[in-house]
Design brief:
Elements: E1 2-7, E2 15-19, E3 30-35, E4 39-49, E5 61-65, H1 73-85, H2 90-97, E6 121-127, H3 134-144, H4 149-164, E7 172-173, H5 181-189, E8 193-199, H6 216-230, E9 234-239, H7 245-258, E10 262-266, H8 274-283, E11 288-291, H9 297-308, E12 315-318, E13 330-336, H10 354-365, E14 368-373, H11 378-385, E15 389-394, E16 405-410, H12 411-416, E17 420-421, E18 424-425, H13 426-437, E19 441-445, E20 455-457, E21 474-476, E22 481-483, E23 490-492, E24 505-507, H14 512-522, E25 528-531, H15 539-550, E26 556-559, E27 572-577, H16 580-584, H17 591-603, E28 614-619, H18 625-631, H19 635-649, E29 655-664, H20 667-685, E30 689-693, E31 699-700, E32 703-713, H21 718-734, E33 742-747
Parallel strand pairs: 9-14, 9-15, 10-12, 10-13, 11-12, 13-14, 16-28, 19-26, 19-27, 25-26, 27-28
Antiparallel strand pairs: 1-2, 1-4, 3-4, 3-5, 6-7, 6-8, 17-18, 20-24, 21-22, 22-23, 29-32, 29-33, 30-32, 31-32
This protein binds adenosine-5'-diphosphate and zinc ion.
Zinc ion binds near residues 466, 469 and 487.
């Protein structure tokens, strides 16, 4: 008899089932099991032994699903690492990794049958049969080259390609033919060419992809990355916005695909990458698969099964959860915009970071890894400084593009001089005026983040900060006090500014909606649109807004973070950052880094195809180091300044932050338990424990919340710390005062 350890999509350990050998069950297979008296689950076979476990009453595996195993040995190692590092069960990894394939009931199965899944295809093209001899083609061209020169060139190039590639049947991949779809369609209609769908070949050949010609700087960067990869290092590609990081990725992708390897390219969000995906699809036709959460669960399940059965040689472009897709021969993992907060899963276990997982994949698969950004995370930058990663810098925009001019506009000064209308300084108003006059476009960025607004002195711009943690204090409205969200330091909300003694403290903050209202009053003629979470609830709505702006039907686009990401709009000459103070004052030790990243990204939208790019930053703190660093475009100054602060206060990347969120319906029960837990933790971790504190969201969906954080300094054993922490959590769970309390663990919390 054989016994199988099976993972179920639950926050539980694995269970053992008996295996009937006739089912042909192997490691990595999806199977159906009965669990409890009447529930059926899809599970994954983790291991098989002949050793009978102690437990007397074992149930059998009922059925094997799908013709191919869902998990490779590498994927098993990745899941194990993830469960261990992020402190969850492998079942929780499974629940997240296999959407729709792991529904907790057998009834829903059978929707997907992997035998019906077709392998990917791409278009091949050949001259029509009569024209496939040299004489016939020469004769045709001689006859028609005067009247239809373009058509003849295309036909010539098809013949030449077929010859070069030794394609005896005359067929060549469509993507290698330099002609647009309309001309190909016309040739087809006239019966001059034939087009056929064919399965992609796993091993593409060198020169099988149309690689973009690189600039000298790009060529150098590419070579440095290749050298780093040859020594097994992760490469950090730091390239300013518009420097052409994508063209470098394309070369690396073509390298990997030519060797029959799989490529994974992670992006923070898929809706903003339409331009990128279209570009990649043109070059890597048939091999490109996109993966994101807006696809239906069924569609994602389908993709998963297709890739599980794939021969390799495919390019996956997806959001963080794409790290779970089956890969057979991963050769390259690219993380674009590696600094993006969207890579961190926060709402359920495993609370993993897609970027860090990508680096781990590099180790497990022996794959090459590239992290790309215009503003690298301090985590990656520190790794580069420590020579763990190879650092590759691209300082210039590609081609004619120049970096925009940055103007810092002092809001307090503007108020004093009567040069401010509602939330707009005269500087900005005049710039928008000029932009509209020139027929160019403007982007206005207003980030309304956080739940509780912060307070600020309207006279001097001061916001109260915690003396122990160096973050701004958050206003708690009900109790009229201010609290540090890291250590719990509390002061009564001041009426009088502690900095300038003037009674002028104000609740701050305004959102995009209000900004639109005000800007339309200032420019009644302008066509204004808004891009934020409220206006882009569906992908269609989002695309419509973007398309209107792209085609010049909108003059001014007001938006949140979403406008900062990756768009390549040609006509933008003004970018306005409406309230930089907002960004500098978030209660988060990453506030400065994030503010710099966001503002540099949004600034990067200006002047991409002309030299009229101007960025206006409205702030009451023009002397703030981050503002100065943005004005100078000096990433290195920001990074070194911030790293110093982080070192002083023991924050990441000099430590790892594990956050415990406790939840319960009753305030008193929660806080008694939280204090008890903090005490137990302090016995083991001493001063590394912070809290308990009330998070910005003290209550969510009727539940009270309390937070405890543990800072583990780098160099200390993270593994030991996790074990100790796990002990405390388990001990607490066993105590009566923790009855009904939920504990969420977040490793490397944001
Ligand atoms: P980044 O991702 O670094 O911000 P992109 O890859 O979007 O930059 O490139 C910016 C623009 O410059 C794009 O429109 C891109 O097509 C163009 N570009 C960059 N490098 C090249 C190149 N070598 N050949 C042709 N176009 C290029
Ligand atoms: Zn504090």
């Amino acid at each position: 008899m054989l016994y199988a350890q099976v993972v179920l999509p639950l926050a539980q350990p694995m269970y053992t089932f008996t295996v009937d050998e006739t089912l042909g069950v192997g490691v990595g297979d999806a199977v159906v099991v009965q669990f409890g008296s009447s529930r059926y689950y899809t599970g994954i076979v983790w291991s098989i032994t002949t050793q009978r476990p102690e437990y007397p009453r074992l149930k059998p595996i009922l059925k094997r699903l799908y013709t191919t195993p869902l998990l490779t040995p590498e994927a098993q190692r990745l899941w194990e690492w993830m469960a261990d590092y992020y402190m969850c069960s492998i079942g929780e990894v499974m629940r997240l990794a296999l959407p729709s394939l792991a529904k907790p009931s057998a009834a829903s199965l059978g929707e997907l049958d992997d035998r019906s899944i077709e392998p990917p295809t791409e278009r091949y093209i050949a001259l029509s049969e009569e024209l496939r001899t040299e004489e016939a083609l020469t004769e045709y061209v001689a006859k028609h080259s005067r009247r239809a020169p373009r058509r003849c060139t295309t036909m010539d190039s098809i013949a030449a390609l077929a010859f070069e590639r030794g394609a005896t049947d005359g067929f060549v991949p469509r993507r290698l033919v330099d002609a647009d779809n309309d001309s190909i369609a016309a040739l087809k209609r006239s019966g001059l060419v034939v087009v056929e769908q064919r399965q992609i070949t796993r091993h593409a050949t060198e020169g099988d992809f149309l690689r973009p010609t690189l600039s000298e700087a790009q060529e150098r960067a590419l070579n440095t990355i290749r050298e780093a990869h040859a020594t097994g290092k992760v490469a950090l590609l730091h390239g300013v916005t518009g420097s052409g990081k994508t063209e470098i990725y394309i070369h690396l992708i073509a390298d990997a695909l030519s060797q029959g390897k799989d490529v994974l390219m992670l992006v923070p969000e898929i809706v903003i990458t339409t331009q990128l995906v279209e570009r990649l699809e043109r070059i890597f036709e048939g091999r490109t698969t996109t993966y994101h959460s807006r696809l239906t669960a069924l569609r994602r399940g389908h993709t998963f099964l297709r890739l599980a059965a794939s021969e390799g040689g495919e390019l996956i472009v997806g959001v963080r959860s794409a790290v779970f897709l089956p890969m057979h021969n991963a050769g390259l993992v690219i993380v674009d915009e590696e600094h993006d907060a969207g890579y961190k899963q926060t709402d359920m276990q495993p609370r993993y970071n897609g970027r860090d997982t990508a680096v781990m994949m590099g180790m497990i698969y022996g794959a090459k890894v590239v992290l790309g950004s215009a503003t690298p995370s301090l985590e990656s930058y520190l790794n580069a400084l420590a020579k763990k990663y190879a650092y590759v810098e691209l300082k210039e925009r590609w081609g004619e593009g120049t970096l925009p001019e940055v103007v810092v506009s002092d809001t307090i000064r503007a108020v004093k001089r009567g040069e401010r209308k509602t939330h707009f300084n005269l500087d900005l108003i005049q710039d928008i005026e000029r932009t509209l006059h020139n027929g160019d476009q403007a982007i206005l960025f207003q980030n309304r983040r956080g739940y509780a607004p912060y307070i600020q002195c309207r006279t001097c711009g001061y916001s109260p900060r915690c003396p122990h943690c160096n973050v701004t204090l958050t206003q708690h409205k009900a109790t009229r006090h201010m609290e540090c969200h890291y250590c719990g330091y509390t002061i009564p909300t001041p009426d009088i500014c502690p900095n300038c003694d003037i009674k002028d403290m104000a609740l701050m903050g305004f959102g995009t909606e209000k900004a639109v209202e005000e800007i339309s009053r200032l420019f009644p003629e302008a066509r204004i649109d808004r891009l934020d979470g409220d206006t882009s609830t569906s992908e269609t709505a989002f695309r419509n807004i973007v398309q209107r702006f792209e085609s010049g039907q909108t003059d001014i686009l007001v938006g949140t973070q979403i406008v900062t990401k990756g768009f390549d709009f040609g006509g933008v000459s003004t970018v306005g950052i409406l309230n930089a103070d907002n960004l500098l004052s978030t209660p988060d030790f990453r506030a400065s880094e994030r503010a710099f990243q966001l503002m540099m990204q949004v600034a990067g939208r200006a002047g991409r195809r002309n030299d009229r790019g101007r960025v206006i930053i409205q702030t009451s703190q023009p002397k703030h180091p981050v503002i100065q660093q943005i004005a100078a475009g000096d990433y290195h100054a920001m990074a070194h300044g911030e790293l110093n602060e982080r070192k002083t206060f023991g924050y990441p990347p000099y430590s790892r932050l594990i956050r415990l969120l406790l939840r319960h319906d009753t305030y008193d029960v929660l806080h008694r338990a939280a204090h008890h837990m903090a005490q137990l933790l302090r016995q083991k971790f001493g001063g590394r424990v912070m809290g308990p504190v009330s998070p910005a969201l003290e209550m969510l969906r009727g539940e009270h919340r309390a937070e405890i954080a543990v800072k583990i300094e780098c160099g200390g054993s993270m593994k030991r710390a996790r074990t100790m922490l796990r002990d405390v959590v388990d001990r607490c769970h066993a105590e009566s005062c923790f009855k009904g309390i939920k504990i969420d663990i977040d490793v490397d919390a944001w």
